[in-house]
Amino acid sequence: MRMAARLYSIGFLGSGKMATAMARGLISAGLVRPEDITASATSDTSLNLQRMKGHGVRVTSDNSEVVRRSSVVWIATKPHTVAPVLREISPVVRRDQLFVSVAAGTTLNSLAKNLPEGTKVVRCMPNTPVVVRSGVTVYSRNGTVNGEDKELVEHMLGSVGLGMEMPEHYMDIITGLTGCGPSYMYVMVDALADGGVYAGIPK
């Protein structure tokens, strides 16, 4: 399958909950083998990095190693560390690579200005149900992302739930809806359960 072949190597700059969720989702979908994923964190002893190791993912504390090994690089660091990390790895970025950011509130322009000119960049915000391949993700892309790259992004996101392209000015609004919305549903379900207990049903 052509798309699966392009997904031979995936990198994660950062190994937090979202990176781990996406890695698990892509592995579960059969798009990539664990050994073809490389993830980085600031310390080899970080809890998140240990979780990545537990899934069979190659781990490192060297961000540049992640980029050198990967055809698709997911930017999954904390938003305030995105710029310095991108400046750090910029010398080893290749023109054929695709960068996909899940850093909340980080615009396409701010990503592109810290990478070599012409770098292909996508901004998206998955939610944690990607772990069970039921996530909802809206994405936006810069002008250098072509139709084949768009197909690749949709293949990745579609394998872990629902993926849809929208103009970037909707991104912050949709992030709040898809990221925080499920929490409100859980609060409602919990309140219904408490109501049942209050009415006399055993917990």
UniProtKB/TrEMBL annotation:
Q: What superkingdom does the record give? A: Eukaryota
What does the entry give for GO biological process? Answer: L-proline biosynthetic process
| Signal peptide location | none
Q: Which Pfam families match?
A: F420_oxidored, P5CR_dimer
Alphabetic keyword roster: Amino-acid biosynthesis, Cytoplasm, Oxidoreductase, Proline biosynthesis
Domain Pyrroline-5-carboxylate reductase dimerisation per the UniProt entry, residue ranges:
168-203
User: Which Gene3D superfamilies would you find in this protein's record?
Assistant: NAD(P)-binding Rossmann-like Domain (3.40.50.720), ProC C-terminal domain-like (1.10.3730.10)
A single GO molecular-function term is:
pyrroline-5-carboxylate reductase activity
Tell me what this protein is called.
Pyrroline-5-carboxylate reductase 1, mitochondrial
For this chain, the family text in UniProt reads:
Belongs to the pyrroline-5-carboxylate reductase family.
Does the entry feature the keyword Acyltransferase, yes or no? no
Instruction: Say yes or no: keyword DNA-binding present.
Output: no
Outline the extent of the Pyrroline-5-carboxylate reductase catalytic N-terminal domain.
Answer: 10-105
Q: Which organism is it from?
A: Geodia barretti (Barrett's horny sponge)
